[in-house]
Amino acid sequence: MLVPKRYKHIISKFVRGEKGTTAVELALISPVLVTVLFGIIELSVAMFVNTVVEGGLRDASRIGLTGLEVGEGSREQAIVDIVNGASLGMVSLTTSDVSSKIYPSFGDIGMPEPYTDDDGDGSYTDGEPFEDINGNGDWDSDMGEAGLGGPGEIVLYSISYNWNFLSGQMIPILNGVIPMTASMVVRNEPF
């Protein structure tokens, strides 16, 4: 297409002009910059919440550790109340979010119940003999027994909860939720 001579001067001036290039560059970079900034803020808040929950769990584990009588309510509810108080209202846990398991020793935490591998496949198969550590009559991949334990026992306190993104559904892969956990292992005092 032929451009009339009077417009050629205007077009060449527009092409050579550098006014507004900073605004165009900012318009191109700002969505990425804002997304990275929000991501850093989200990650920082999630890490802060997890640290606060772990600190609250550490404080709450003293109830089980010392065998403290809590008066009204259960020890589990007292643990949840302490962690919720420590979290500055950022999480709202219930007793179903908290679990505690008793173990024979620190080295047994998360370990399966011992079994005899009769078929040599490297994993437990129904019918193979096993040592029922937790006393439930079934072989378990984690030998811990549910409970707060007695004097001198090893107890693992765990909290599982979901942290909702402050920015909602910005990251569709996770559906706006990050699953979080916190845990604390203690040996109960000989109360």
Core attributes:
about 190 residues; alpha+beta; four-stranded antiparallel β-sheet; 3 helices; about 35% helix; about 15% strand; elongated
Describe the overall structure.
It contains three helices and four strands; from the N terminus they run H-H-H-E-E-E-E. The chain has a four-stranded antiparallel sheet, covered by helices on one side. The protein has helices at 5-16, 21-66, 75-86, and strands spanning 98-103, 145-146, 154-164, 177-187. Helix 2 packs antiparallel against helix 3. It has a domain at 23-109 and 144-187. 37% of the residues lie in helices and 16% in strands. By secondary structure, it is α+β, with helices and mostly antiparallel strands.
Strand composition percent? 15-25%
Spatial separation of the terminal alpha carbons = 95 Å
N-to-C series of helices and strands = HHHEEEE
Count of DSSP strands: 4
Describe the biggest sheet? 4 strands, antiparallel
What is the rounded Rg? 29 Å
User: How are the strands of the largest sheet arranged?
Assistant: 2-1-3-4
- The shape, in one word, is elongated
Contiguous uncertain segments of 5+ residues: none
Instruction: Please identify the structural class as seen in this structure.
Output: alpha+beta
- List the quaternary state of the chains: single chain
How many helical elements?
Answer: 3
Fraction of helical residues: 25-40%
Average pLDDT over all residues: 83
